[in-house]
Amino acid sequence: MSDQQLRPAASGVPPAASGVSSAPGEVLSVVRGEQNGASGDGGAQAGPEAGVRHLGQSADGGPANSARPSAILAQDLRKQFGSVEAVRGVDLDIAPGEMFAFLGPNGAGKTTTVNMLCTLVRPSSGRAWVGGFDVVAQQAEVRRHIGLVFQESTLDEYLTAEENLRFHAELYGLPRGQVADRMRQVLEMVGLWERRRDQARTFSGGMRRRLEIARGLLHSPRVLFLDEPTVGLDPQTRAHIWGYIRELRRREAITIFLTTHYMDEAENCDRIAIIDQGQIVALDTPAALKASVGRDRVEIRTADDDAALAALKERFGLEATKAEDAVRVYVAGGEEFVPKLFAELGVAIHAVNVARPTLDDVFMSYTGRTIRDAEASSTERALGNPWRRSAQARTRR
Amino acid sequence: MSTPSPTQRETEPVFAPPRPTAEIAAVRVAGGSLSGDLRAISVVWQRELIRFARNRLRIVTSLAQPVLFLFVLGTGLSTLTRRDVGFDFRTFMFPGVIGMTVLFTAVFSAVSIVWDREFGFLREILIAPVRRSSIILGKALGGATVATLQGVIMLALAGFVHVPYNPLLLLTLVGEMALTAFMITALGLMLASRITEVQSFQVVIQFFVMPMFFLSGAMFPLSGLPGWLTWLTKVDPLSYAVDPMRRAVFAHTHAPAVVQRLMNPGVTWGSWRLPVWFELVLLIALALAMMGVAVWQFARSE
C-alpha cells in the first residue's frame, strides 16, 4: 500500500507561502489543510486539501529530486556552549522520504545538531528549516510536524502504553475521532497492541523503545528524529528495532533522521553524514562513501605467489604484498579488477576475495582515527544536553 | 573522489529560505488554539489523577502523618488543657491538620515535576506544540485536585474530634482546601522550577514546608506570641489558609467564649482582624502571582 500513498509535500508550504508572503491567512490555510491530512487514518495519507501540494512518495525514498522542497534544510548551523563550539557550521539538505543517518562518535555534535533541528536548542548562528518551517521563528509548527525519539526514555512508566499514547495525542491535538484508530495502528506496527493496558515500567528496554517510536509516529510527523534509537539495547533487540524502522518506512511516508555511532546501522540509510568535532566531514550514500575511500582489498591465491607479485607490478603497476598464503593488493573498483586479473595476470589463480571498505574505513579515512578512538574524547554528554544531568542517577536505579 | 558537500549536491536552489518576520503571529494563531490548550491542560490534569489513584501506598502513607499529629500529638497535648471547659483541643487542631495534609500533598505533587525531569517525561511534555502555561496550569490543577482529595479523606475523621458533619461546614472546608491546595501547588511549582535534582527536594521540605507548617497556626493559636514570631507568622501564606478553616470549624462548634478568644484569634494586621473574604482574596492573589512566576520560569528553562 505504501507506494501509492499520498502525503503533503514535506514542506506543503510552498516557498512563496511560507516565505516572503506576509498574509497571515495564507499560512493559516496551509496549516489547517495539513492538520486534516496529517492525522488521517491508514498511515498518514492525506486527502486533497486546498493549499497543500501532494507528492507521490516513492518506495525507495531516494535522495532529493531537486524539484521537491527539502524535509530538512540547514545552512551553516552553529552552536556555541560557552567557549566551546559544539557544532561548527553544518549544512544539510534532506529530501522528503529520505532515511538519513548522522554518524559520529559521542561528542561530535550529533545530539546538539538534532536538538537545534527539533527546536530544543537555539542555534548560535545559521538557519534551519524542518518540514519547511523555520526552527527558530516557527517553533510550534516545527514541533507539530516532527516526531522525536530520544536516547533516554521519556515515557511515564506509571502510565500504560495506551495512556502514554493518549497523553501524546492530546498534547498534539489529534482529532478526537481518529485517536483510537491511529493508536491501534502504531501499536500494532511495533507489536505492542496486546500489551497496551500494561504500565510502561513492566516493559523491557526494547519494548519501551518501540513504544516511544510508536508515540513519535502517533501524530503522523513529516520527519521522525531518532537519536541513537538502539543505544543500550542488546544486539537481538537492536535487530528487532531495525526491523520496525524498516517496516515503518514501508508503511508511512516519512523522512527519518537518525543519529548513531553504530556503523552497521548507518549502513541501512539512504545517505550518511559523518560528523566529527562539530563539522560534517563527508556526506553521501553508504556505497559512494565507501567508494570514496578508493580502494578495495583484493586477495588472490595463486599457483605461484612470487610470480603473481611480479606480474602485478609489471602489468598493473600495483604494489602487492604477501599475506599469509595469499597475495594482497589494494585497488579501486575491486570487482571490476578481478576479470582483468584473470585475463592478464598470466599466473593460475585458485581463489579470489574482494573486500569492500567498511564504514569504519570511511570514518578512518575522513577523520584520521577510528570511531572508537574518537569516542574516548567525548564531551557531548556534558555539553549538548542539559537533560542528561541525571544519566548517572538513572543507571543506578 | 571528493566528497560532495550538501549544498553542491543539488545545484538548483531547492528551497527559498523564508523570511520569518511576518508570519509568526499567524502561526501562533494556528498553534495556540484555545481548544488545543484546554486539551493539554486537561490531559496533564488527568495524568496527575491517574498517578494518584494508582499509587495507593502514597495515599496511605501521606495520611499517616496527619493522623499521628491529630490523634497522638493532639491527644497528648489536650492533657495540658483544662478539661472542665468542655472543649476538645483536637477540635482546635483539626483545621490545622487538614491544612497540613493539603500542604504536604500539594507540595509533593508540584515537586513531582522534578521527578518528571529526572525520568525524562518532562521532555516529552516540553517539546509538545502547546504553551508552557497550559502545561503548568494543568499540573497545578492536577496537584490541587489531588491535595484536595487527600484533604477530603482527612475530613472524614471530623467526627472523632467533635467536628460536626454539617454539610455547609464540609462544603466550606472543601472549598477552602481547594483554594489552599492550588496556592500551595503554585508555590511548589515555582520552587520546582529552580530545583534540578531530586535530592534538593529535602531542602525544600526543610526550608519551606516545615517552617510554613509551624508558622501557620496549625498547631497553636497565633496570639500572644513574641514580636519576631508574630511577624514570621504573618509572612507565612499558609496562615491565611488555616485561619478561614479554623473559623469555619469554630462557627459550627459550641466553644465557650474564653476558648474562642484564646484559640481562634484570627490573623491581625495591626489591630485589624482580617475578615475571611479578605483572606480568601489574598490566597487567590498569591496563587495567581506564584503561578505567573512558575510559568515565567518554566518558559525560560530549556
Mind sketching the topology for me?
The complex is a heterodimer of chains A (397) and B (302).
Chain A: E1 6-8, H1 15-18, H2 24-38, H3 41-44, E2 54-56, E3 72-81, E4 84-94, E5 99-103, H4 110-117, E6 125-130, E7 133-134, H5 139-144, E8 146-149, H6 161-171, H7 176-189, H8 205-217, E9 223-227, H9 235-251, E10 255-260, H10 263-266, E11 271-276, E12 279-284, H11 286-293, E13 296-302, H12 305-316, E14 321-323, E15 326-331, H13 334-344, E16 349-355, H14 359-367, H15 371-376, H16 380-383, H17 391-396
Helix pairs in contact in A: 7-8, 11-14
Chain B: H1 6-9, H2 24-31, H3 34-54, H4 56-78, H5 89-118, H6 121-126, H7 132-155, H8 167-192, H9 201-215, H10 227-235, H11 239-251, H12 257-263, E1 268-269, E2 272-273, H13 276-300
Antiparallel strand pairs in B: 1-2
Helix pairs in contact in B: 3-7, 4-5, 5-7, 5-8, 5-11, 7-8, 7-13, 8-11, 8-13, 11-13
Keywords summarizing the entry:
heterodimer; A: 397 residues; alpha/beta; Rossmann fold; Alpha-Beta Plaits; 3 domains; elongated; disordered N terminus; B: 302 residues; mainly alpha; two-stranded antiparallel ribbon; 1% strand
Broad shape of chain A: elongated
Query: How would the global form of chain B be characterised?
Result: globular
Which structural class best describes the helix and strand composition of chain A? alpha/beta
Query: How are the strands of the biggest sheet of chain B laid out side by side?
Result: 1-2
Q: In CATH terms, what is the fold-level topology of the largest domain in chain A?
A: Rossmann fold
Strand composition percent of chain A: 15-25%
Tell me the count of domains of chain B.
1
- Low-confidence spans of chain B: pLDDT under 50, at least 5 residues? 1-31
Overall structural class of chain B, as computed from helix and strand content, comes to mainly alpha
Number of helices of chain B: 13
